[in-house]
Amino acid sequence: MERTSVDIIIPVYKPDRTLCLLLRKLREQTFVVQKAIIVNTEEALWEAYVGEEEVRETLEGLYFPVEVFHVSKKDFDHGGTRRLAVERSTAPYFICMTQDALPVDEFLVERLLAPLAEPGVAVSYGRQLPRDDCGPVEAYTRSFNYPPKDMRKSKADISTLGIKTFFCSNVCAAYRREVYEALGGFETHTIFNEDMIYAGHAVLAGYTVAYAAGAKILHSHNYTGRQQYRRNFDLAVSQVQHPEVFSGVRSESEGMRMVKDTARHLIKIRKPWLIFSLIWQSGWKYLGYRAGKNYKDMKRKTILKHTMSPNYWKTLWEHEDHKEE
Question: For 293-314, how does the pLDDT look when each residue is reduced to its tens digit (9 = 90+)?
Fold first, then answer.
């Protein structure tokens, strides 16, 4: 790829030392970063963070500037907040990351940007590898969703890949600004899934989504069953709210395939007792997904008991109530 400039966008909430590690690893990249844009939720939390000596030394040791702006917790929005950060970027390319994603090596930025040199590629996302504390079930889920082989996904793949055609993750994803602006950018008010919504619009508009397996980061979670339920509830809500992308595209069959493949993997590594954990976790995911698909039939109090994002709903309802007045 011809050398050009790239900005890194990182939403932050309750930052810890992992963010320092991320910034130091960005400093070591072979592809020079123009600027890091940090959008922090709750200014007081950031002020406490930068008061630490390790943080000050990290920020002072970077060759690229770090621009920080703050939003309140009630105003944070997965799509809208990232959109605000993109507006502060001047580079022709930008990379969205999360504060807990760590580059495996110095080639992350270079390899993530490389597919964007191909005509028609709108977004490129990297490979997520499990952390050392990741359990076997979650570790295999990472390998299922992020295999070791590159992939290009277009409209022609919807019939075979289904919803996975739109799969993309802002844990680590690179965007070409001219395409981003042509497509209208991230949704301004999104409960979750802003990356897949954008990728879906791109694919349906004739663009390609690239998976760059060589662009590797460490990123995984050990969610409880209840957390899986809430996360999948919000995921389903995002799909219902965007029928222009997800309507008519098969999705649940992909989840079943992952469960079956994971069970076979657990037997292969001689840990069949973990299949009970797999079934438990998968059950929570499925129930959350089905509930989210039917959120329109729920009362407001009920929705707040199911979601991971209560502030999203409170803001949405406040806006709706004002319109009705």
Answer: 999 999 999 999 999 999 999 9
